[in-house]
């Protein structure tokens, strides 16, 4: 991976836009053989598109190089039993330790495959249990109606509700995994990835971003999973700003067969940037700790470096972040609720790290409304995971409106047609069940 990153840095080339792992080959052909609309017709129809809303889940988690146990519980993070979304974006940093062998050596997908297996089980287990709890009575009622009408209840009750991975990509310790409801998958087009290394020598992947993009119906999405430069000293925020500028300038996607697809990050309709952005609080450490103890988030946030960047006229102008009403997510002592520096004395006190909101989710573009922004109390690493939920407006061609109703369930309305839930196969890392596109 790293020689490729160096070469692409020098020659400013895009890195493997189709080099990612997914459950099945991507949908590139029109659904059910519908002929693609030519450019002239597309232009005419642009003003006559319907809009649907979908719920998008986004999370970021620096796991500190700690491999997950097989029985790791993601229920608190995903909340699938009570609040299922249509799309799940899970971003991770440091899924492997950032040592020289991992940064300079060949890519090892063993840990990312393990994370995908855990995510798959959590998403589908939660969906199946929720549907079972909420729909058993209605399913039986529908079956009775179907039998009375001499219809086949299977056509109403066997539509799968599970999730599939459409994009999964790792660059050293940065890893992003994109999951979507199976019934939405036929409407996904043009998935691709773009990796930018900003670490050692300004191009290796210990820091940087893995960006993914796809089109859902007629709306483009871009998710940027990042790990920016660390450091809590005065002036270190300039390195993080430089990383962001590099990511924005070097991330590039293919234009598509009609040369009409967005190429850069901010060209997409809906853009969400997530990750360990590493921005700190511009206050003395003692002051920061005192304010954290008082839970005086307002004063701390007035001095938060990322918020100051969002309010500036620099490269993050136009980006938004929801209100932060949770404690700083970094840095904790292992397996505890105590911030690092409070639990050590003597020589180890030199390794203090002032608490900060390093783990963030920000967005760009119209048609996104944040519904939730919070942190999760997992003690797996020295960071707490952060998650957000969005309502995303998506444009749909009128020609497909009736066709969609055969497959899709509105996530913001009561589901009127319950389905039987089918079980899903365990995530297999054999090449025959995962495709490198």
TrEMBL record:
Domain Inositol polyphosphate-related phosphatase: 52-398
SMART domains: IPPc
Signal sequence interval, chain numbering: none
Listed Pfam families: Exo_endo_phos2
Keyword Cytoplasm among record annotations: no
GO MF assignments: inositol-polyphosphate 5-phosphatase activity; phosphatidylinositol-3,4,5-trisphosphate 5-phosphatase activity; phosphatidylinositol-4,5-bisphosphate 5-phosphatase activity
A biological process from GO: phosphatidylinositol dephosphorylation
Keywords: Hydrolase
InterPro entries cross-referenced by the UniProt entry: Endo/exonu/phosph_ase_sf, IP5P_plant, IPPc
Protein family according to the UniProt entry: Belongs to the inositol polyphosphate 5-phosphatase family.
Descriptive protein name: Inositol polyphosphate-related phosphatase domain-containing protein
């Amino acid at each position: 991976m790293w020689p490729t990153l160096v070469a692409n840095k020098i020659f400013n080339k895009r890195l493997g836009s189709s080099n990612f792992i997914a459950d099945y080959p991507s949908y590139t052909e029109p659904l059910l053989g519908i002929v693609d609309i030519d450019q002239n017709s597309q232009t005419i129809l642009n003003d006559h598109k319907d809009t649907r809303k979908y719920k998008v889940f986004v999370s970021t988690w620096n796991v500190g190089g700690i491999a997950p146990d097989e029985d790791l519980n993601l229920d608190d993070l995903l909340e699938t039993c009570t609040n299922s979304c249509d799309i799940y974006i899970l971003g991770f940093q440091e899924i492997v330790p950032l040592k020289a062998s991992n940064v300079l050596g060949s890519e090892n997908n063993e840990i990312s495959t393990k994370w995908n297996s855990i995510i798959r089980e959590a998403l589908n287990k939660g969906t199946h249990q929720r549907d079972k709890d909420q729909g058993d009575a209605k399913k039986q009622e529908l079956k009775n109606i179907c039998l009375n009408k001499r219809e086949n209840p299977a056509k109403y009750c066997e539509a799968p509700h599970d999730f599939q991975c459409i994009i999964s990509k790792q660059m050293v310790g940065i890893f992003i995994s994109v999951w979507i409801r199976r019934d939405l998958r036929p409407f996904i087009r043009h998935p691709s990835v773009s990796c930018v290394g900003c670490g050692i020598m300004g191009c290796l992947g210990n820091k940087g971003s893995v960006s993914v993009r796809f089109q859902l119906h007629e709306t483009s999405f871009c998710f940027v999973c990042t790990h920016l430069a660390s450091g809590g000293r005065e002036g270190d925020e300039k390195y993080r700003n430089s990383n962001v500028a590099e990511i924005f300038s070097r991330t590039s996607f293919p234009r598509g067969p009609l040369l009409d697809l967005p190429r850069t990050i901010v060209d997409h309709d809906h853009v969400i940037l997530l990750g360990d952005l590493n921005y700190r609080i511009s206050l003395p450490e003692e002051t920061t700790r005192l304010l954290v103890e008082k839970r005086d988030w307002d004063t701390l946030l007035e001095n938060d470096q990322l918020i100051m960047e969002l309010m500036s006229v620099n490269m993050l102008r136009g980006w938004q972040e929801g209100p932060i009403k949770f404690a700083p997510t970094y840095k904790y002592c292992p397996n505890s609720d105590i911030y690092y520096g409070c639990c050590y004395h003597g020589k180890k006190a030199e390794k203090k790290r002032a608490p900060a909101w390093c783990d963030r989710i920000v967005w760009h573009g119209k048609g996104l409304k944040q519904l939730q922004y919070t942190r999760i109390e997992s003690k797996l690493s020295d960071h707490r995971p952060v998650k957000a939920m969005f309502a995303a407006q998506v444009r749909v061609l009128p020609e497909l409106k009736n066709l969609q109703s055969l497959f899709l369930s509105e996530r913001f309305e009561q589901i009127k047609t319950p389905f039987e839930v089918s079980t899903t196969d365990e995530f297999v890392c054999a090449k025959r069940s995962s495709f490198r596109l």
